Amino acid sequence: MDTMRERFITVTSKMLDEDPRLALVLAEITMDGFRPAQRRHPDRVINVGIREQLLVGVGGGLALTGLRPILHTFASFLVERPFEQVKLDFGHQDTGGVLVSASASYDWPAGGFTHMAPGDVALLDTLDGWTVHVPGHPDEAEALLRDAYAAGDDKVYVRLSEQTNAEPRPVTGAAPLTVREGRSGVVLAVGPLLDNVLAATEGMDVTVLYATTVRPFDDAALRAAVGWGGPADVVLVEPYLAGTSTAAANDALGDVPHRVLGLGVGRAELRRYGTLAEHTAAHGLDARSLRERISAFLRPGA
């Protein structure tokens, strides 16, 4: 099976052939995969070098000319390093584009903390009007990439990961998918953590929702899942900074007695390279750790 990043190359290369309005801006990362597309479309595949602020500035400028830009590099260099440009060149200028990241929270441990961005979604939350997609499988990544490009002139962030679920799920529409139904709580799994959540909650009387579009947060879907009888227990399992969506879930359930537990990547920096799986376990996001944490939170009988 190809990776999400490989699928991004394939899909975007095809879209460049299909639509003259599409432009791709790169900062060296993944450039080798796009060299055939650059030879076919040298005016619309632009590599600015290792200049991430320029990457975003060029993308914003292309959007002002009427093009639909896709910007790509590692998450830490796409959202964190050029955040001022994201804020101004897209938000302040009221332009649209698609930011497509790679490496997510800790997908390349050998790159060290400079190449990790667990706070990217939380950072974008400080800005208005961004849609955020978090696919959990290459097939989902393809569908969400196409949706992001077709989203008029909206501002969209697509967060790609080396982690993946074994099977794709339908991602038509923004609403979370109900994977299991139960009566003792709701567990919302985001993107590539679905398989771990399903393994962790096996045999537990809980509803499992699966979300690949996390912004805007779907208040109605969460309210429908918990019902209106209360009290409600909700666990959010996100592949980025723990608690990123806790406030959104609390707001959605403001008139329902409820508790929310936000699980995700911890704030403490892990200063050993290790492997992706070891980082997942260290942050308590492997199936065993999740089962312990979810069971301890839910009321007796779950």
Automatic annotation (TrEMBL):
The lineage of its organism: Bacteria, Bacillati, Actinomycetota, Actinomycetes, Kitasatosporales. This is Transketolase. It comes from Streptomyces cirratus. InterPro entries: PDH/Transketolase, THDP-binding, Transketo_C/PFOR_II, Transketolase-like_Pyr-bd. Residues 2-168 form the Transketolase-like pyrimidine-binding domain. Gene3D superfamilies: 3.40.50.920, 3.40.50.970.
